[in-house]
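Lab notebook, bench 4. Still working through the backlog of constructs that have no structural model yet. Next entry is a single chain of 293 residues. Request: give me the structure tokens for it.
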Amino acid sequence: MEDMVAAARALGHHYVAITDHSKTLRITNGMDETRLAAQGERIDALNARGMPTWALRAIEMDLTPEGAGDMDPSALARLDLVLGAFHSKLRLREDQTERYLTALANPDVHVLAHPRGRIYNFRAGLSADWERVARRAAETGTALEIDAYPDRQDLDVDRLRVVAESGGWVSIGTDAHTPSELVFFEIGIAAAILAGLPRERILNYLPLRQLREWAGRIRARRHGDPAKRSVAMAGKRETIDTTPGKQGGSRYVRRDSGGRFSTDQVRAGRSVAQDRRVKAKNKAPKGMKDRGD
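Model written out:
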């Protein structure tokens, strides 16, 4: 994971989503809820170091042909992003439109990953009424993915043009299993340009805070949970040590409403008064408590 984040930083990315497979895909050593939580703690610790590239808690959750996921929703609620993907019955020749519409109704899925399941010279992928699928995705706010892995390129340019006409969201993913494969992102950009997709509808171009707010709104709208309607940094500062046994590793952090470390990391004090003593860049106005730098 650390190598992936370092490679993303070298490519100039501001953030990268860590999307291991979920537990049903045992052949890929898929994550169960316990391992997912442990990975989340590692991601939090990595982000707490103040790295320039932020690691997002995420997962590629397996979807049944009926659109159901294989993970406990309470575990998914602590993630920044949830990708849903079909990994079974991918060689069916019959129209699969209803399968997609059902998947797009899954309240936990932000992005439908490699939608067709196609692999060049191996599997043609599923067929559907893509105008209906794209319209439904736009209605639910679910992003459809451009899987930019060279053997996949899924969705392809023709179907992406349909998505562009629908006004829906698109997410570019590399399907990278090694750091060197992150460069496939450029293939996704090329497909988006050829399809005429506006930059404003591509999730990857959202600043980190806006991306997390988008995901929070989608989740809140579907679940109706007031606690998830904002990713505002509501928690008080707490101190952590990112380099145990060494000096200089302590820092103060906040957690968001889901218990995750926020982007609001500081090296200053626990309070506004301490901010002033260390000449913090941003001073909180009266009544804003610990909202300083």
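Notes after review: The beta strands are 15-18, 54-63, 81-86, 111-112, 143-147, 170-173, 238-241, 250-253. The radius of gyration is 20 Å. Flag for follow-up if needed.
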